[in-house]
Write a structure and sequence with these properties.
It is built from 3 helices and 6 strands; from the N terminus they run E-E-H-H-E-E-H-E-E. It is an alpha+beta fold. A hairpin with a 5-residue loop joins strand 1 (2-4) and strand 2 (10-12). The N and C termini lie far apart (45 Å).
C-alpha cells in the first residue's frame, strides 16, 4: 500500500508501523530541531556546504532586515490596530514566524511586498539546497497594544 507522509513523500507501508512513523517524522525534521526554531536547518560554518549556500541565506536575512525596518511597532494605543504578517517560507510549508507591527504607522503595502520577496527567496533557497524544516503549523500570535506599542501576547 502506498501513502504520502506529512511532507507529501510517497512511502511504502508494511507491517512495521513504528518504523514507518520514525521514517515519516525523520523526513521532515533533523534531529535537534525544535518548534522554537525560526531558521531553516543549514550546515554549520566550515562544514560541507554547496557553494553559495551561506551567501544565499545572507541575502534572505538582508531582505528580512529590510522588512523589519518597514514594520513599526509604535503608534497604536488600541490592540485592534496591531497587526502581524507571516515571515519566510519553511521547507514543509508555512511561515517561520509572524512579525508584529502597528497598522496605523506602518506602510502595510510596502511591508507585504518586502515579505513576499523574503518568502519567494526562501522558497527558492529551500528548493535549491533541498532544505528540511519542522512541519508544524505556525499560527499568528494574539496581539496587544501596551504603552502605545504593539506586541505579541
Amino acid at each position: 500500500m502506498t501513502v504520502n507522509n506529512s511532507c507529501g513523500r510517497p512511502v511504502l507501508v508494511r507491517v512495521f508501523a513504528p518504523l514507518f512513523i520514525a521514517f515519516a517524522l525523520g523526513g521532515c525534521m533533523k534531529s535537534g530541531t525544535t518548534p522554537e526554531s525560526r531558521e531553516p536547518e543549514t550546515p554549520p560554518a566550515g562544514s560541507a556546504q554547496p557553494p553559495g549556500q551561506e551567501t544565499d541565506w545572507k541575502a534572505i536575512e538582508q531582505l528580512e532586515t529590510e522588512a523589519k525596518a518597514i514594520a513599526k511597532i509604535d503608534g497604536c494605543s488600541v490592540s485592534g490596530d496591531c497587526r502581524s504578517a507571516p515571515v519566510g517560507a519553511k521547507a514543509c510549508g508555512g511561515p517561520r514566524y509572524y512579525l508584529t507591527y502597528c497598522g496605523k504607522t506602518t506602510d502595510s503595502t510596502a511591508l507585504q511586498a518586502k515579505l513576499d520577496e523574503v518568502a519567494k527567496a526562501e522558497t527558492a533557497y529551500n528548493k535549491k539546497y533541498s532544505a528540511v524544516s519542522t512541519c508544524e503549523m505556525r499560527l499568528p500570535p494574539e496581539l496587544e497594544a501596551v504603552g502605545g506599542s504593539c506586541r505579541a501576547k
